[in-house]
């Protein structure tokens, strides 16, 4: 332990949180900066600090309404949903009809979060619309994503659906959860990859052909072949080998690539 530092990591984290919180009022001006990436980062940062929502919420909603960069706008909209009170529902609902699918995803995600608050005006119909939009997002690949959940759009959708209020109909989210399962391209910890392999390949199969696999199984192998962290494949190599599947990234690329170009 370094001299003078607390052995309690929670204390250190709280000190860091308070230090950033103290600087936030002076950073709000950067929401008007010419650099879209900087505007996005400030909007994302504000999502972690509901303590200043009285000041940040109007700025975030204005940014969502007028921002030209789709990632910045979606980041700001979801940040507003994360820090806002139940009444924020009224301001966010209209974005379920936005032309940009990333904005619709942000609105749906925000509404699920707000639905968990007491007295939030999110009835079954509105919550159903949010789940429908999340399902649509789960079935599609976006050209750009936000930084939430380390950029793992499908992992974020999955987590959002698991946060649905107990009163919601769980079957409504099943399609979206199933669509998210094989999409692990941005999985960093490897936990979602292991879960997907376990659920999509429940029993060993001697050297299956790619064309014999289900669409979800093919999608999982496609994502593994193109995964940015090769160690994720190595961590599941034994299980892949048991299943008669390629157990290295190069072998997966070859296995999948033949059929991509067929």
Record keyword descriptors for this entry.
59% helix, 262 residues, mainly alpha, globular
Write up this protein:
The longest helix is centred in the N-terminal third of the chain and has 19 residues, at 9-27. Helix 11 (215-225) crosses helix 14. With 262 residues, the protein is mainly α. The mean pLDDT is 90. The protein is globular, with a radius of gyration of 21 Å. It contains 14 helices and no strands.
Q: Summary?
A:
The chain is mainly alpha-helical and 262 residues long.
Q: Describe the biggest sheet?
A: none
So what's the overall shape? globular
Report low-confidence residues grouped into runs of 5 or more.
none
DSSP E strands, number: 0
Number of helices: 14
Distance between the termini: 58 Å
Secondary structure layout plus pairing:
Layout: H1 9-27, H2 36-46, H3 53-66, H4 70-83, H5 88-92, H6 101-115, H7 124-138, H8 153-162, H9 174-180, H10 191-200, H11 215-225, H12 230-235, H13 237-242, H14 249-260
Helix pairs in contact: 2-4, 3-4, 4-6, 6-7, 7-8, 7-9, 8-9, 10-11, 11-14
């Amino acid at each position: 332990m370094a001299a003078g530092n607390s052995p309690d990591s929670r204390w250190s984290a709280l000190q860091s949180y308070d230090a950033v919180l103290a600087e936030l009022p002076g950073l709000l001006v950067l929401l008007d900066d010419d650099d879209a990436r900087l505007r996005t980062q400030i909007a994302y940062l504000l999502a972690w600090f509901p303590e200043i929502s009285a000041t940040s919420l109007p700025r975030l909603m204005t940014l969502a309404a007028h921002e030209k960069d789709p990632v910045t706008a979606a980041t700001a909209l979801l940040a507003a949903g994360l820090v806002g009170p139940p009444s924020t529902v009224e301001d966010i609902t209209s974005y379920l009809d936005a032309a940009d699918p990333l904005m619709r995803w942000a609105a749906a995600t925000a509404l699920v979060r707000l639905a968990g608050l007491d007295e939030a005006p999110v009835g079954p119909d509105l919550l159903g619309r949010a789940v429908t939009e999340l399902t649509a997002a789960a079935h599609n690949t976006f050209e750009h994503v936000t930084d939430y959940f380390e950029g793992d759009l499908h992992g974020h959708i999955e987590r959002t659906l698991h946060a649905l209020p107990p009163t919601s109909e769980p079957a409504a989210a099943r399609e979206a959860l199933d669509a998210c399962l094989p999409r692990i391209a941005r999985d960093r910890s490897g936990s979602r990859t292991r879960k997907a392999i376990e659920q999509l390949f429940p029993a060993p199969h001697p050297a299956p052909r790619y064309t014999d696999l289900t669409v979800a199984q093919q999608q999982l192998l496609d994502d593994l072949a193109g995964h940015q962290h090769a160690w994720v494949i190595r961590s599941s190599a034994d299980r892949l080998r048991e299943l008669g599947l390629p157990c290295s990234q190069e072998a997966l690329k070859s296995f999948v690539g033949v059929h991509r170009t067929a």
